[in-house]
Amino acid sequence: MGSRTGEALECRLRRPSCGSTGSCTSLYDNVPESSSVTDDLFGLDRDVIYENLDEILEHVWGLQRKVELWSEAIQLDPEGGSIGGGEETDSGGEPATPNFEERSVSDIGTSASDFDSTANSLNEAEDLGMRERRDSGVGASLTRPCRKLRWHSFQNSHRPSLNSASLEINRQSAAQLNLLQKCSLLRLTAIMEKYSVPHKQSWAVPKFMKRSKTPNYRDKRVFGVPLLVHVQRTGQPLPQSIQQAMRYIRSQCLDQVGIFRKSGVKSRIQALRHMNEASPDHVSYEGQSAYDVADLLKQYFRDLPEPVFTRKLMETFLQIYQFVPKDQRLPTVQAAIALMPDENREVLQTLLYFLSDVASAQENQMTAGNLAVCLAPSVFHLNVSRKESTSPRLPIDSTMGKPDHKDLNENLAATQGLSHMITDCKKLFQIPQDVMLQLCNSYLAADTQPLSFSELMGEGRDSRIDLEVSIQSLLKESFDRFKGWLGMPGPLNTEISCKKVGDVHPLRLWKVSTEVEAPPQAVLQRVLRERRLWDEDLLQEKVMEALDHNTEVYHYVTDSMAPHPRRDFLVLRKWRSDLPRGGCLLVSLSLDHKTLPLEGGVRAVVLTSQYLMEPCGMGRSRVTHICRADLRGRSPDWYNKVFSRLCAMELARIRDSFPALDPSGPETKI
Q1: The domain 227-431 is classified under which CATH number: 3.40.50.2000, 1.10.555.10, 1.10.1200.10, 3.30.565.10?
Q2: How far apart are CA 445 and CA 481, in angstroms?
Q3: Count of alpha carbons within 13 Å of 156, Cβ hemisphere only?
Q4: Rounded Cα–Cα distance for residues 262 and 265 (Å)
Q5: Measured between alpha carbons, how far apart are the two ends of the chain, in Å?
Q6: Which Pfam families does this one have (predicted)?
């Protein structure tokens, strides 16, 4: 074994780095090949196998097995009982629900070398038989060792049980999604380089030139509005009228034969479009023809500025269903979906779940394959993307009206792909278990789990200390006039600014401010006790426990676009109304309360939330909201583009919940 390992290392030293961006080839160690190593690297074709490299990996896995045996040894006490120090597995090799103690890995004497082995290990039962590489590029952060555990999220009690719910993408933290996208890019690149078009030297996610001028969508409200613009406007990527159309078909029209295949009446469809644009939040489809509403949905997706799959990834999805073997398509599509923007992924999941419900009704005679034939041109923008795209990878065909061989193949791939996605929609948006284990073992997946109520109220600890630190931080920022914040204009007469925080968490700290025509104490009362007047997504709220006259545990639940889980918030909050000149403040942070189990949603985490209400004369207040929260299921890129605007719109709704003051009247007093 030693001589073979030496030969393999010598072969490895002759190979150039794959992490270099200037490399003309891109070969991955984790791509399974099929022949022996006999030629120089640049003389190899795609079917060469690195047998010696496989032996090195087997040796690494042998070290991993030793670590697993060590873990099993500390898992049992002298009487043979479990102390919760490791994960139990059933006979099938699948990890069972772990029963961990609330102590970190470092508490049980894990050395640095031991943790390196576990942190860099991969599940041996990978679906694709792939092995993740170690380099200085994208994969480095997935396998980089951790020398010191600094976050309470590494407590064993916080490690997820790998049930179906915990594997869903929309339940992961921002840090986990950040890692997931890197890991998915590695996997997707490895598979596509092996199975993609033979004449292409290597596969890569296409890059597009940015447009010099951003289109103006102010005169549009539903049709032709990008998903990102709509989520910035309303907090949800799909307009309410389009969601209502799906609900109408699902509840009343599933028995209509040939729905989505039979055409509606053009004049009635046009009237529905005008109704959507005029009042998208108050559209009723009662009494409308099912075929008209179905055609309206097809037109909505066809009129989007880019396909749901995005122009950047659409060709990748088509290539998956043209070249990747059927038994490997599911994990490949999962990797591609993980790379989609969050708003596009959420809309795709909503659409596929809806079409799955339509296909499950036998009365309409529309199977998944039939629906795919009818909807693939609208969802993939077939024959449209090629004409309107600025990408050099999609040339315009000189023959007009006559599809070439490539067009026919892409149409077939789109139909087969959409049919497969409708059938397996429940699996597409889950993370493979081996990838999830890898994310859990990475030190960068510093999950933002809140402290439990028992920890905050434990001996020697006052729960108000954390809140007092937040209060003093807010007062210091106000005294320094919020120096060091990067400002930008916000929507609805608000001001937005942000700054980076000096920890490793990828989320920024956002600040929004505006003037409210009410005194500070009235604004404080509105935020504390009258949330239903300004939070349109609120489902329920309750004060769980009052700790003293100005400190309490507060629970509230907000709605999400179906079928995504609703968001559950449990915060510890404290307020003050004795600031100079009559100012008020309110600070909050997330809490984990054992007596309040999570039911059917996802527990969002508020890292910090601070409201500062300062009087500015004439009965008005200057309200500033500083927030940093992990809503789950959103990547750091989504927070950079969307989260600040959602905070600004929330503050604008608080402002608009007060009636306008009469400038000639007396100053309001409380």
Answers
A1: 1.10.555.10
A2: 34
A3: 18
A4: 10
A5: 83
A6: RhoGAP, START
